[in-house]
Design brief:
Order of helices and strands: HHHHHHHEHHEEHEEEHE
Structural class: alpha+beta
Distance between the termini: 39 Å
CATH topology of the largest domain: Alpha-Beta Plaits
Number of helices: 11
Strand order of the largest sheet: 2-3-1-6-7
Shape: elongated
Largest sheet: 5 strands, mixed
Number of domains: 3
């Protein structure tokens, strides 16, 4: 079972890097219960979205803190970390449930208002139909009575009643349509916001991990069906922790946003997919790209980033990125494809950073820039 625990630690997608620790020692001291909790926290970390009282950044920092504490082998620290995990979930899940419940209540209110309006319209038309039938009956009686005065009076009353009915009906229809349009706009706005929250990273506006997981599966399937090349670039910002420690999280957030902005400028062709999949880790999926083409575009991105000086709060900040590049192989699944790109990224980082490495499998030996 220790192998299973080690695999979980290795696959953690936390903002801090488990690779910085001694993984074998960590896995050996980690119980199955704590490994499972780490897996749950990591899954939450990948699929966070903005809710009231809980910004994604603060929740991610909290999850990272809890995960680090769970990796601590000290019994007293472990007991405290388990208590904090329980506290976190009891608070977060209640607020998460409230968020969904409030959204559902808003939707129910809109539908109820619409049903109310239709009911009122039906009642209004029913009462006006009775009134019109009464005037119509009086008009027929006037015709049968063969009296000019009676016919004139009944005709006037019927015409006035009919015109009033049509005018009121038109006004109510306009009012109802205006209200329906307003409610539909509200629903549409809420659905767009929900879609955005669920599919994009709140800080950088890149696609999030959930979208990336869906996209990499889709591209893998499309490639098998069409035999088209598709390549994946995994990258992260070199020494990002130092930027945060030196200048603070606000500057760190600024660097993340500027990095995504620059990546979107470089990878701007139709079909290019830029996602933030971890704290300072990003992924770019390039459909219809062989490895050689992906290398060319990766070099362009690295050159742009090296040259750029990002100015914020009177600070001029420069940074570099390390990359791993993998072209999807025949009969390769998404997880294996991602794993090869990830291993290539770590080779870039372990051999000096600020470079790219092409993954094993496509070439006999990884090639570092």
């Amino acid at each position: 079972m220790k192998q299973w625990v080690a695999k979980i630690v290795e696959q953690l997608d936390l903002s801090f890097s488990a690779k910085e620790e001694n993984e074998s020692t960590t896995a050996a001291n980690l119980s199955e219960d704590r490994a499972t909790l780490l897996y749950i926290l990591d899954t939450y970390n990948k699929h966070l979205f903005e809710i009231e009282k809980h910004s994604i950044r603060k929740v991610r920092e909290k999850i990272d803190s809890l995960s680090k504490a769970l990796l601590n082998a000290d019994p007293q620290a472990s007991e405290k970390s388990l208590f904090e995990v329980r506290q976190f979930f009891s608070s977060y899940r209640i607020d998460e449930y409230s968020y969904f419940q409030n959204s559902f209540d808003d939707f129910k209110r809109i539908i109820w208002d619409f049903a109310d309006q239709l009911g009122e319209d039906a009642q209004f038309e029913k009462s006006k139909d009775i009134e019109l039938l009464t005037h119509l009956k009086q008009l027929r009686e006037a015709v049968e009575a063969n009296s000019i005065d009676s016919l004139r009076t009944s005709s006037r009353e019927f015409i006035n009643s009919y015109m009033e009915y049509q005018n009121l009906k038109h006004e109510r229809r306009e009012k109802r349509m205006s209200s329906v349009k307003k409610n539909l706009d509200t629903v549409k706005k809420q659905l767009v916001e929900a879609h955005t929250n669920l599919n994009t990273d709140h800080l950088t506006s890149a696609f999030n991990r959930k979208s990336f997981d869906e996209a990499i599966k889709k591209q893998s399937q499309l490639s098998r069906m069409s035999n088209a090349n598709v390549s994946l670039i995994i990258l992260d910002i070199d020494h990002f922790k130092k930027i945060n420690d030196t200048h603070g999280h606000d500057i760190g957030d600024f660097v993340l946003k500027e990095c995504v902005g620059l990546l979107k400028e470089v990878f701007n062709k139709e079909g290019d997919f830029v996602a933030r999949i971890g704290g300072e880790e990003f992924a770019v999926i390039l459909p219809n790209h062989a490895a050689s083409h992906a290398i060319h575009r990766a070099e362009e991105a690295q050159t742009r980033i090296r040259k750029e000086a990002f100015v914020q709060c009177h600070l001029s900040i420069r940074f570099t990125v390390s990359m791993g590049i993998a072209q999807l192989l025949p009969n390769e699944g998404p997880s294996e494809w991602l794993k090869r790109a990830d291993l290539a990224l770590y080779q870039s980082k372990n051999s000096g950073r600020n470079k790219y490495t092409v993954a094993d499998g496509l070439l006999k030996n990884p090639k570092a820039s």
